[in-house]
Write a structure and sequence with these properties.
Layout lengths: L3 E2 L6 E2 L5 E3 L8 E5 L3 H18 L4 E6 L7 H6 L8 E6 L6 H12 L5 E7 L6 H8 L5 E5 L6 H14 L6 H10 L4 H14 L6 H13 L2 H9 L3 H13 L4 H18 L6 H8 L3 H10 L5 H21 L3 H13 L7
Parallel strand pairs: 3-8, 4-7, 4-8, 5-6, 6-7
Antiparallel strand pairs: 1-2
Helix pairs in contact: 3-4, 5-6, 5-7, 6-8, 9-10, 9-11, 9-15, 10-15, 11-13, 11-14, 12-13, 14-15
């Protein structure tokens, strides 16, 4: 694998092992599962366990916590057993590891045990860097599984689409967007919702299917409130906002949903070109560009600017700057519903 730059200097750090996505995990003497997305890390580790168990049902599975590691634990678990069963040793919290774990694991990498798969889960940070560098440098004959956080809507859409594709189930693009919108803040919940639809829904899954199964979640979703307000539907937006708050929606994510859509609109204000070209320029999906272009109809540059200002004020208000976050939210919804035509 090609060398990767480290910092702004000419100094480079060589990665000598394969680095793959969570869904490409495979057995190796040492498997480093890195990155902040715990749900994907857990799923990748389960997939590896299933692969190893399919090869040999006598697989022994052991778990260690690197932050509570006691000297000698790894060597003991990796030592050959009487019947030579294959072993899977899963180690969590490597980013918080003890000195003893770091020392003994570095020594273990020099001569990994036969028929043993060591999985090291590192969520990020500088602790254990010497160990990570050794693995990435090729010591131990390892593999790195990168579990990066899915921050962009496009990444989450691809994840959800893959869930249905893996089960050979058809789902419309509108249904995918509705599903991702409804479960935008929790990847585990999004995956669970996908699996429920795969198990229960018949034929092709459409927007109507998603509404049927998750109507409460979709109707009270912050993006529904934002869509109504941006479209100028003030009454509907306020009703949806009050319903969302009454069913437990937190004001902070509501503001975040508005900010996400308004920022996208601001990026595209005054821009010209096809959706594909603009998507590439601004790091968006083509459908996001098309939606933002539709949302911008009837908006002025001055009105958009005022709405960005009130968004910042509301964000501060719901985080403690004002005593009544609900009032601040309703004021924001009113301002955006009138496309920034109000002064306060």
């Amino acid at each position: 694998m090609a060398a990767r730059a480290s910092g702004k200097t000419a100094k480079k750090s060589t990665v000598a092992i394969d680095q793959v996505g969570w869904d490409r995990i495979r057995p190796a003497a040492v498997v480093l599962v890195s990155g902040p997305e715990q749900f994907l890390a857990d799923r990748a580790t389960r997939q590896l366990r299933d692969q190893l168990a399919a090869e040999d049902p006598s697989l022994e599975v052991h778990d260690l916590e690197a932050d509570h590691y006691q000297p000698g634990e790894l060597v003991t678990l990796a030592s050959p057993s009487l019947f030579a069963e294959p072993r899977l040793i899963r180690v969590s919290n490597v980013e918080k590891c003890t000195d003893a774990f770091l020392t003994e694991t570095l020594r273990y990498l020099e001569t990994p045990a036969d028929d043993t798969t060591l999985v090291l889960r590192h969520g990020g940070g500088v602790r254990g860097k010497k160990l990570l560098d050794a693995i990435r440098g090729g010591t131990g004959g390892g593999l790195e599984v990168v579990c990066a956080e899915l921050k962009k809507d496009t990444d989450k859409l691809e994840f959800a689409a893959a869930e249905f594709s893996a089960e050979r189930r058809r789902i419309s693009q509108g249904a995918l967007r509705a599903l991702v919108t409804a479960f935008n803040d929790d990847l585990a919940e999004l995956a669970s919702a996908c699996q429920q639809l795969i198990s229960d829904a018949a034929a092709e899954i459409t927007e109507a299917t998603v509404e049927k199964y998750y109507s409460g979640r979709v109707e009270t979703n912050a993006f529904k409130v934002a869509d109504a307000a941006i479209a100028g539907q003030q009454g509907q937006a306020l009703v949806l906002l009050r319903h969302a708050l009454s069913t437990g929606a937190d004001p902070v994510p509501v503001v975040a949903a508005f900010a996400m859509k308004i920022r996208t609109m601001a990026k595209l204000q005054g821009s010209h070109g096809g959706s594909g070209q603009l998507a590439s320029r601004f790091g968006l999906a083509p459908w996001q560009v098309e939606r933002a272009q539709r949302d911008l109809r009837g908006w002025s540059e001055e009105g958009l600017g005022r709405c960005i200002e009130v968004l910042a004020e509301t964000d501060a208000a719901v985080k403690g700057a004002e005593r009544d976050p609900v009032y601040a939210l309703e004021r924001m919804v009113t301002m955006i519903s009138t496309r920034g035509s109000l002064l306060s």
